[in-house]
């Protein structure tokens, strides 16, 4: 049996009792280590697999002692190219595949694989980045398991998609979720803007998931085939707000301007969870500390009870009240 | 400290390790018992509170022995009228408030409180049902805690909002979630249809949460002030599909007709989780067994990888392929 086990959002104690029992009994335990991270960074993961200790091990912070089992860190490369190794014998023994959040939850932008090509033409060198849609690798893994006649069971857990309800906003009032990638000088994709616009037309909130870059190679290392990876990068609420204003300045359709209200959320579900409400302009100045961050752009259908709930998180209450009256009140 | 602890979706082992630790240490433990249910019905809950054993206790199936603590079942009445009792002393001691799913997740339609009035006019007696919006009571409880200067911490868990990803559909491709209430002869609200239409315009999927009626009084018992409750009712996928076709027959905008594809999901996260894919007409005939059920109406933007994943759950593969070609293929 292949078990996909959700780990939840904050630390190693967010696994469910059911999930932990499965991990303890499984023949092999893999940890998917590239679509998200847990928020602990003190514990050290001891790898007993043939793989070297993973550079993300500390960040992932899964304590082998806690789970009582050796955990094999599965990076993107391994899951994509060695799925049969992961699934080996899984028709006879139990294999647990651990995923931060919910196994089928929204992964961050990592699943919009970004391919960077350096093109030299004439005198200039340009980076051309191509983002193409692909299924989350977990779905791939399940499809492959099916082909091999291996049964699968899913142990759900918290995902940012529902945990964002901790903002006090009604989940019924969210439209489609979008993701925000790191802009570069030459690549500033704005398709997210169209989707936010579709939500805004009906007054709906939009959850924006922020880019994570883990285990990315520099162009030089990639070209030379050197498996040396750049330090991980996590987009902040301030960076996201900045990029949204940049797109708005270009598109000018009034979807996410300096006076649009948004909520910045950091480390949802952790002891030091932090929420802050303000205009996008205000949010470009906030520092919400360590990753992971998310952002919610407020819809005009925001209910007064939602306003009451979020108001206490305002960067500046006077500004919040002023902007609320000007753009949101009586629009719901 | 007030702890809002999510219990997850299926049974008592879906609580997180962190949540369980809190339950064990808390001075008092309440279980919110009216917006959803766990899927176990064998274990018996022993109430040691001053309240009588609750009629829902068996259904909720929370084993006192498992959590190692007496649990006070808090029904809607208690949470709404006795929140100060729940919060008593919580500035000095720890109080845990357990919620099925995620504490801030979407509750089912129960939070659209339905008020039934029997009106006698002339010769006929009509039931007039009024549905009015209210905040989820958990938000109310947090707001009240704030007023009393009580700190709150939230322990997230799986919610149907993200666990529905187990269908293989991309959560990025869902629009707003809607809820479906039990129609009566005189009350068939169709506002959900407008929201599905908004999603459909952009090719998005819609998650439909199905009505739960627990601890409802008959009109007679309500009028006489007798606290006798009707047996609980849970809407099935077949009933939901039936009602959607009924609304479509009236509205005729081609949003959810007999050839619209949908996924029925039952007992998500449980060992006997069941998924079935078919046209709404086909789904009116399926029996997915015990509660809880949910339904996803497929958007036309459905990706081919999503199709590959869901096809194996088809009621009839030939019909699925035919309808897919006719209405969905190449629309994404």
Automatic annotation (TrEMBL), chains A, B:
Keywords: Methyltransferase, S-adenosyl-L-methionine, Transferase
Gene3D superfamilies per the UniProt record, alphabetical: Cobalt-precorrin-4 Transmethylase, Domain 1, Methyltransferase, Cobalt-precorrin-4 Transmethylase, Domain 2
Pfam families according to UniProt: TP_methylase
EC number: 2.1.1.314
Record flagged with keyword Transmembrane: no
InterPro entries reported for this sequence: 4pyrrol_Mease, 4pyrrol_Methylase_sf, 4pyrrole_Mease_sub1, 4pyrrole_Mease_sub2, Dphthn_synthase
Leader peptide range in chain numbering: none
Domain Tetrapyrrole methylase residue range list: 1-110
Pathway membership: Protein modification; peptidyl-diphthamide biosynthesis
Catalytic reactions of this protein: 2-[(3S)-amino-3-carboxypropyl]-L-histidyl-[translation elongation factor 2] + 4 S-adenosyl-L-methionine = diphthine methyl ester-[translation elongation factor 2] + 4 S-adenosyl-L-homocysteine + 3 H(+)
Binding site for S-adenosyl-L-methionine: 9, 102, 105, 159-160, 210, 268, 293
Biological process terms in GO annotation: methylation; protein histidyl modification to diphthamide
Top-level taxon of origin: Eukaryota
GO molecular function: diphthine methyl ester synthase activity
Record function comment: S-adenosyl-L-methionine-dependent methyltransferase that catalyzes four methylations of the modified target histidine residue in translation elongation factor 2 (EF-2), to form an intermediate called diphthine methyl ester. The four successive methylation reactions represent the second step of diphthamide biosynthesis.
Family: Belongs to the diphthine synthase family.
Protein name: diphthine methyl ester synthase
The organism's taxonomic lineage, starting at the top: Eukaryota, Fungi, Dikarya, Ascomycota, Pezizomycotina
């Amino acid at each position: 049996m292949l078990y996909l086990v959700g780990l939840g959002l904050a630390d190693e104690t967010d696994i469910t009792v059911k999930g932990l029992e499965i991990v303890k009994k499984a023949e092999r335990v893999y940890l998917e280590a590239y679509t998200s991270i847990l928020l602990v960074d003190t514990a050290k993961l001891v790898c007993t697999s043939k793989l070297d200790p993973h550079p993300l091990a500390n960040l992932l912070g899964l304590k082998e002692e806690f789970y009582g089992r050796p955990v094999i860190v599965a990076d993107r490369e391994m899951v994509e190219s060695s799925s049969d190794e992961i699934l080996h014998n899984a028709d006879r023994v139990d294999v647990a595949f651990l995923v931060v959040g919910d196994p089928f939850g929204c992964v961050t932008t990592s699943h919009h694989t970004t391919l960077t090509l350096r093109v030299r033409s004439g005198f200039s060198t340009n980076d051309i980045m191509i983002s193409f849609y692909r299924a989350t690798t977990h779905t791939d893994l399940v499809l492959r398991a099916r082909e091999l006649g291996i049964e699968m069971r899913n142990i759900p857990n918290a995902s940012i998609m529902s945990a964002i309800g901790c903002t006090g906003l009604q989940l019924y009032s969210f439209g489609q979720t979008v993701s925000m990638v790191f802009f570069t000088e030459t690549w500033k994709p704005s398709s997210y803007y169209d989707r936010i616009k579709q939500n805004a037309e009906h007054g709906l909130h939009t959850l924006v998931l922020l880019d994570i870059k883990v285990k990315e190679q520099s162009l030089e290392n990639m070209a030379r085939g050197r498996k040396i990876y750049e330090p991980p990068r996590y987009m902040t609420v301030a960076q996201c707000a900045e990029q949204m204003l940049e797109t708005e300045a270009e598109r000018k359709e009034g979807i996410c301007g300096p006076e649009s209200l948004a909520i910045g959320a950091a480390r949802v579900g952790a002891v030091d969870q932090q929420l802050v409400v303000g205009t996008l302009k205000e949010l470009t100045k906030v520092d919400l500390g360590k990753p992971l961050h998310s952002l919610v752009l407020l819809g005009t259908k925001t209910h007064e009870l939602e306003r009451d709930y979020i108001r206490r998180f305002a960067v500046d209450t006077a500004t919040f009240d002023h902007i609320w009256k000007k753009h949101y009140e009586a629009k719901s």
